[in-house]
Amino acid sequence: MHSHPAPRLVATDLDGTALHRDGTVSPRTVAAFARVEESGATLVFVTGRPPRWMGGVASAVRHRGLAICANGALIYDLHTERIVESHLIAVDVLEEVVAQLRANVSDLVFSVEYEAGFAHESDFLLGGLDRRAGAAPRADSVTARPCAKLLALHPRMGADELHALVHDLVGHLVTATHSSSRGLIEMSAQGVTKATALAALAKEQGIDAAEVVAFGDMPNDLPMLSWAGTSYAVANAHPDVLAAVDHVTAANDEDGVAQVLEKLF
To answer: Which controlled-vocabulary keywords does the entry list (predicted)?
Structure first.
């Protein structure tokens, strides 16, 4: 018997939070997610991942539920594996952002996530998932068409330092955040965050923030964690996240999210 009713919506980040370090969903976590849905609550994956990285997760959870991808820019139906809503960065904004960053920060290289697929400049060092996927499309221009997410990579600067710089330069044009240990900044359309997408989805279902529990580990999760009625960080989270949440659970490799869900449901 719980002293408080179970949440009506569970929102969780994936990489570094619900997934193990190797990117897998443990059987314990799969079972905990099933308990959430069997109770009648809504389960939402809220991730910086693009839809093209969601196949393994969708299979592990038997293609149930919705995913908020690309930090809120894309709403992805795991059942149909289709994008059902998009919030893109317009071409004129992309052009201005890239021009401002190139003029003020040397050695930056860019990539872009589209609704379907991605492209990168030749010097952009791909992350693990993309490296394993093999050949990747290179772009003569990353500003040729609207995109869900613009990524800027610096070979030497740390993520926190680079984020502060990017925010100061183009924060009036896009919303910048980061979720990586390397100097990689992720930019969405102005005002688009994990929180804005989650709040809109919750409102459609008549769910208040107070009825939501959210889990995260990196700065791109902070808007969502601040919005949710109850927030958890995993023990391996970024210091800013650990300082901002209501509760801390065990690390991702110890199934910290599942441990909490087993108690709530």
So the answer is: Hydrolase
Residue closest to 46 by CA, chosen among 10, 11, 77: 11
CA distance 93 to 74: 18
CA angle 231/234/239 to nearest 5° reads 90
C-alpha–C-alpha distance, residues 167 and 105, integer Å: 12
Per-residue pLDDT tens over the stretch 92-146: 999 999 999 999 999 999 999 999 889 889 888 776 666 555 556 677 789 999 9
Closest by alpha carbon to 113, among 99, 124, 100, 102?
124
Instruction: Quote the tokens at residue 184.
Output: 């990689």
Q: How far apart are the first and last CA of the chain?
A: 10
**d(Cα 11, Cα 215) in Å, to the nearest integer?**
6
**Interatomic CA distance for residues 187 and 175, integer angstroms:** 5
Nearest Cα to Cα of residue 84 among 111, 114, 115, 112: 115
